[in-house]
């Protein structure tokens, strides 16, 4: 992913020059954006590249300039993949505000960093409001930057293909925005919703908040850059959607049971945030009234102590929900791999995508 990282750095350099020409007070926008974009696993860029590779049929290593590939096409896929990572960073900034998260990737979340800037600089006014407002603007700036980088990649394609790729990018952004709202909505609307709908609604959040945006859309965008056929796109979607669901199910498990030293987030963070995930919905279906009521009362309490987190973890495990989610992850991965085997894609790409599937599901952060 060195080529993608270099392209992101170039975009940030260009943005920094313009920001500092306006005012040196904008330096934190550059610093915090760089820190956020220097980390991460680059999964979206990887899926975008291998979506392209699955159609373009280049060599197995990450070298899109190899085997006589036209430089313009190579630059296009690297630039588009970089834009997806910048968009992801923007989404993380906004997501951490909505979730009231304190940390991201082992360091303070962006809104907390702006709060610290306010405190350490002796500014006047509400520190938390300053942090939230500033982080919202940085997230918006990263959204704008992702558009600019994406458009640079599209400019290297013929107009008809560029238009199709842009439509998929817009669809991805609509889906993830809708999914984010539904996630927020479920945290507060659940008492007014029929019990029989809770699990179905949690599954819908997974599809639109994460599955499409994390795996399916990057794959399809990369394939469209390469000029994929309908059958190739269908194969990638059939692989990407179930894998994306499994990806988010694993993320939900890590949000409750993950090791803070590895995840970079406090233990049981999703419990304090009140996430109404598939894990929670599955547990509520099987828990007796007493434990279910206790779960509802504690879920979403930002002041949960370690003992309460451990108790909720035990409740979820004893309910059978943890085992049920693990089985669901396995089923979705197997469905994804079966679709991949049947898809008309290049052999090297199928091999790499299968390996990526294992990586994203076995991850511990």
From TrEMBL:
Key word Magnesium present: yes
InterPro entries named among the record's database cross-references: Isoprenoid_synthase_dom_sf (IPR008949), Polyprenyl_synt (IPR000092), Polyprenyl_synt_CS (IPR033749)
Keywords of this entry: Magnesium, Metal-binding, Transferase
GO biological process terms, semicolon-separated: isoprenoid biosynthetic process
GO MF annotation, one: dimethylallyltranstransferase activity
Protein family (similarity comment): Belongs to the FPP/GGPP synthase family.
Cofactor(s) recorded in Swiss-Prot or TrEMBL: Mg(2+)
Record-listed E.C. numbers: 2.5.1.1, 2.5.1.10, 2.5.1.29
UniProt key word Zinc: no
Superkingdom of origin: Bacteria
Extent of the signal sequence: none
Protein name: Geranylgeranyl diphosphate synthase type I
